[in-house]
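Comment thread on ticket #2218

A.B. wrote:
> Attaching the input chain for the structure job we discussed in standup.
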Amino acid sequence: LLILFLNFTQFCCFSSYAQNSNISKYENDLKKAKTDTARAILLEELASQYFEYDINRVNEYASQAKEISEKAHFKKGIGRSLVSIAGYNIRKGNYNIATDELIYALQLLKDANDTVYLIRLYNSLGAIEFSLGQTAATFENDHKALDLARKSHDKKNELLMLKNMCNSYEVIHDYKNGLEYGNQALLLARRLKSETDSAYIYDDIGLCY
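C.D. wrote:
> Ran it. Output below, let me know if you need it in another format.
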């Protein structure tokens, strides 16, 4: 059931080539970073690149980002790193620890007006609730993430949340809502001219019939 969270990583899906290119870029930028805040942001970006294939690296880089951010009193950096560390703990099944980390990060990210990571945070909370069978809380958090994406005109994360919600409803056999969000996702994917997303969404919609 954690497929919802893993798909978000959220952190977005990359091809191996894109991942390697981004990792090299961030590693080079990190060597040239002149401030603690820049180092913290780059370490968190590196953490995000590893979600698909090395969860221990996620924790390693995010923990470094958190330590630097705390010393610099950098709220945005602390909040972002906590979201990634929570992702690591979700993957490891440490749901209580992850929930505490996300709740702590919530106000920090609100204070920093960091919409992108707030979307990730709510999606992560929803994934935890879903894995625990708390579907009402799952969709409450998913709607918060979806609303933020729409208000900030973040079409990429709006599409991601619509896909996740279609998948969630299909898993619990609520096919009416699954079709509703699946069709919304399909329309948006077509507008964004994303053939790959459209293909996956067709599969999800098909499971709702």
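A.B. wrote:
> Thanks. Noting for the ticket: The chain has a mean pLDDT of 90.
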